[in-house]
């Protein structure tokens, strides 16, 4: 794995290089955004970590350009402060973020996680396509509601959470940025309420301002995406009720995001997806095409994006394994179990009797 470190402070670069000496990776450095782009023109890299505050070309500008020219490269920001506007802008072009001074053990662990992710999803076509995504399509009416609520001093965090959690795109971007090292502390954030409480409403204001770029894209099959969103909410409510005890908020979020791979497909295959979603065709017809083009499926596309955005593992694993009945039967009760059952109920399908008996769910299912 090759890493490009970018910082105008040579001492910082030297320190990071020493910290990564034993991390089983190759490291190159650059002292400016211009030098970084020059090196990327002939150096093959897997990860770029850039300081945010540099003269001439700052970190967010560099990472934006890298996202356009080299979308398969995983992008991370390095920052020593928590300016809301810069943090959010960086969050749209950086997949992940690190704080200065950098916790070397956390940095090494994250690099190992990225290396594992690339091994798990090695297809360069997928990396290239998903690497271009900075946000998913946002629902216009919900976006407008959030804007109004942010301007209303009477709106509470819970009021705001109740609206935001209805839109997968806003949820995904909020959770990604809230899990930024600047905000998350030592614990991962895996609910909308937690994401709003940790960074605060000013961060949400900046996120919503950036999301305006993704509202009402006329090239996306908006009616079909609205149908996906509505179905996700049905599944989310069921998953919340079926989630492990005390984890209903995380269960709801997993339900909202479980079809995120479908949203990804609309961005990387817009014309094919538009025809598919408006044709009323059978799911398996498109799955054959999808697997032919990407050697993967919707769950894997969604899981790769969530991996890339450093989402908590339970959310990623639930999205990835939501249709894996054998795994659900073999493993202890989990969010994946809850999501699998919720989908069956939402689709009007019969839940596997063996599953019901194993987890003693007869009474629980009767109350749904």
From TrEMBL:
PROSITE patterns: HDOD, RESPONSE_REGULATORY. Residues 2-115 form the Response regulatory domain. Keywords: Phosphoprotein. The keyword Phosphoprotein applies. The lineage of its organism: Bacteria, Pseudomonadati, Pseudomonadota, Gammaproteobacteria, Vibrionales. This is HDOD domain-containing protein. The modification 4-aspartylphosphate is found at residue 51. Pfam families: HDOD, Response_reg. InterPro entries: CheY-like_superfamily, HDOD, RNase_Y/CdgJ, Sig_transdc_resp-reg_receiver. It comes from Vibrio eleionomae. One of its GO terms (biological process) is phosphorelay signal transduction system. The keyword Membrane does not apply. SMART domains: REC. Residues 136-325 form the HDOD domain.
């Amino acid at each position: 794995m090759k890493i490009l470190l970018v910082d105008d402070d040579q001492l910082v670069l030297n320190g990071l290089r020493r910290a990564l000496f034993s991390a089983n990776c190759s490291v190159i450095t650059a002292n400016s955004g211009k030098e970084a782009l020059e090196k990327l023109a002939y150096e093959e890299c897997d990860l770029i970590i850039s300081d945010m505050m540099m003269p001439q070309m700052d970190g967010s500008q560099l990472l934006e350009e890298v996202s356009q020219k080299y979308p398969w490269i995983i992008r991370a920001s390095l920052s020593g402060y928590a300016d809301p506007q810069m943090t959010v802008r960086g969050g749209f072009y950086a997949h992940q973020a690190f704080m200065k001074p950098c916790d070397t053990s956390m940095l090494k662990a994250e690099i190992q996680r990225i290396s594992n992710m690339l091994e798990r999803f090695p297809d360069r076509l997928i990396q290239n396509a998903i690497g271009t995504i900075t946000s998913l399509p946002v629902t216009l009416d919900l976006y407008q509601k959030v804007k109004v609520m942010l301007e209303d001093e009477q709106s509470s965090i819970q009021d705001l959470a109740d609206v935001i959690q209805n839109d997968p795109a806003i949820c995904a971007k909020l959770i990604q940025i809230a899990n930024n090292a600047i905000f998350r502390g030592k614990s991962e954030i895996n609910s909308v309420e937690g994401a709003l409480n940790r960074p605060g409403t000013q961060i949400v204001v900046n996120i919503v301002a950036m999301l305006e770029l993704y509202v009402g894209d006329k090239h996306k099959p908006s009616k079909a995406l609205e149908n996906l969103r509505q179905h996700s909410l049905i599944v989310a409510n069921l998953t919340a009720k079926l989630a492990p005890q005390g984890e209903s908020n995380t269960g709801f979020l997993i339900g909202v995001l479980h079809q995120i791979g479908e949203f990804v497909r609309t961005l990387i295959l817009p014309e094919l997806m538009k025809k598919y979603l408006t044709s009323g065709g059978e799911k398996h017809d498109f799955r054959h095409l999808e697997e032919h083009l990407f050697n993967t499926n919707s769950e894997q596309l969604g899981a790769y994006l969530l991996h890339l955005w450093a989402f908590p593992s339970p959310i990623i694993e639930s999205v990835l394994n939501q249709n894996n009945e054998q795994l659900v039967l073999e493993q202890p009760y989990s969010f994946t179990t809850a999501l699998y059952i919720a989908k069956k109920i939402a689709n009007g399908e019969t839940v596997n009797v063996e599953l019901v008996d194993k987890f003693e769910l007869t009474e629980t299912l009767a109350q749904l």
